[in-house]
Design a protein that fits this description.
Order of helices and strands: HEEHHHEEEEEEE
Radius of gyration: 17 Å
Distance between the termini: 28 Å
Number of strands: 9
Strand content: 25-35%
Number of helices: 4
Strand order of the largest sheet: 2-3-6-9
Shape: globular
Helix content: 10-25%
Length: about 180
């Protein structure tokens, strides 16, 4: 996954070069970014461990993939490369978007193939492991053309101070 390594390196450089947002930016008018304890956050790809999984009844539809993101990168590299980080960085959040791209460590992956309609909801959960100070989970859901699914996305708490910069990408093909 040479492309993902390059993406991570480029994002880290972008993150380090961009200034932190200020309250003069529209997205931060009502939230003071200096309130985040960013000086206490360990920013390394190995820093924050998470546990993540899918709680869903057994699926009988062929081709549905529910797995962790690391497994998806190994087993479905083309699919992951095609869709990961394709939703773009919102205006005033570019610093945090770049941070997430640089430091994401794990997460979840879902693929619902063309025309498959899941009757029961999918339930994704993510939890910070004990001792984590910063976590960067990524959930990537891809519904191919004409597919249908309902996603419930749950976060479970950790103990102590925790900085979470997560991303949920939902890619919907036509009529999904």
């Amino acid at each position: 996954m040479q492309r993902l390594r390059k993406l991570r390196e480029d994002a880290r450089q972008r993150f380090e070069s961009l200034p932190w947002p200020s309250r003069t930016e529209e997205e931060w008018r009502r939230t003071d970014p200096s309130a985040f304890p960013l000086d206490q956050v360990e920013l390394t790809p190995e820093a924050g461990a998470i546990q993540a999984g899918w709680e869903t009844p057994s699926l009988t539809q062929p081709g549905v993939v529910l797995t962790d993101l690391e497994t998806a990168v190994r087993e479905f590299p083309g699919l992951v490369e095609e869709h990961l980080f394709q939703t773009g960085a919102p205006g005033g959040l570019k610093k945090f978007f770049s941070q997430h791209q640089a430091f994401w460590r794990s997460g979840l992956f879902c693929l619902v193939p063309r025309g498959v309609k899941l009757e029961l909801p999918l339930k994704a959960w993510v939890e910070a492991c004990q001792g984590s100070t910063a976590v960067f989970p990524h959930v990537l859901v891809v519904l191919e053309e004409g597919a249908e699914a309902t996603l419930m996305d749950e976060r479970r708490g950790g103990n102590g101070l925790l900085f979470s910069n997560e991303m949920v990408e939902i890619i919907l093909k036509p009529d999904a």
